[in-house]
Amino acid sequence: MTSQKVAELKEIFQLSRAAPSQAAEIVAINQQLYLPIDDFQWHTAAWADTEAANGHYFVVQNNKRIVGAICVHALSAEKTGVIEAIAVRSDLHGRGIGKSMIDSAENKFRTEGLEHSIVASFREYGLRDFYERCGFTCAPQSGVYRGHSYYRF
């Protein structure tokens, strides 16, 4: 995607800190993340509400409607930013919204003095190429969580 297209997207889609009142909309988008794991939490209202209340969730809106959401954490001692969850409305995949959210997260991490960023993604999501296009390098060893293999970037 050209820098001009990214700039146009940033004008159309606005990234802002999520409010707990937006948890239901975040959950609706995060439903596409669901995997049948006993303690899977990333698609629940309780988790999204807590993360938003703690200032970890950011949303992308278009006409006051959430079209994407990203949850980030800072591991200050390790000088590392963590992308905990990211999702874009399925009908808007491939339009640069996810990349724009990752770029914003990376900028946030740098302004907080973090030197590294990491993300993990279950293999079932099929997002290895996406993360590599965003500049992440896939670790040679996959992780396994409750029987589900995941990439480490």
Give a structural overview:
This protein has helices at about 5-10, 25-30, 45-55, 95-110, 130-135, and strands at about 15, 55-60, 65-75, 80-90, 115-120, 145, 150. It is of the alpha+beta class and about 150 residues long. The longest helix has 15 residues, at about 95-110.
Question: Short summary of the structure?
Answer:
The chain has helices at residues 3-12, 23-30, 45-53, 97-111, 128-133, and strands at residues 14-17, 57-62, 65-75, 80-88, 116-122, 143-145, 148-152. 31% of the residues lie in helices and 29% in strands. By secondary structure, it is α+β, with helices and mostly antiparallel strands.
Q: Kindly estimate the percentage of residues that lie in beta strands according to DSSP.
A: 25-35%
Cα(first) to Cα(last) distance is 21 Å
* Strand-pairing-aware structural class: alpha+beta
Q: Give the low-confidence spans.
A: none
Order of helices and strands: HEHHEEEHEHEE
What is the tally of helical segments? 5
Strand order of the largest sheet: 1-2-3-4-5-7-6
Q: Approximately how much helix is present in the residues?
A: 25-40%
Report the average pLDDT across residues. Answer: 91
Main beta sheet strand tally, sense and closure: 7 strands, mixed
Name the overall outline. Answer: globular
Radius of gyration: 15 Å
* Total beta strands: 7
